[in-house]
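Methods — Computational structure assignment.
A single polypeptide chain was analysed. Its primary sequence is given first, followed by the predicted tertiary structure written as structure tokens.
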Amino acid sequence: VGFATLYLSDTFGTDTNTGYRERLYRSDDDTVFAYQAGAGLEIAFTKILSLDLGYRYFGTAKGNFNRNTSTATELKFESHNASVGFRVKF
């Protein structure tokens, strides 16, 4: 549990009527509440060699992005990460 800073880069789109490229959002950032949870499992093959399996979920609250444009948006970030590794104990 803590905080994360979300960054939104300049975002452009093309007007389908005119074909002109327009900036939809200017670069902006917002610091929001963040949280993560994880779980792991170790499977021993021998006394010194094992397989390590892990999972982590990371998420944030919605960030507000509206710098210098009439268009504002809210975005949140979510990430699911799985890991596999071999562990050698010595």
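Note: The CA atoms of residues 18 and 80 lie 39 Å apart.
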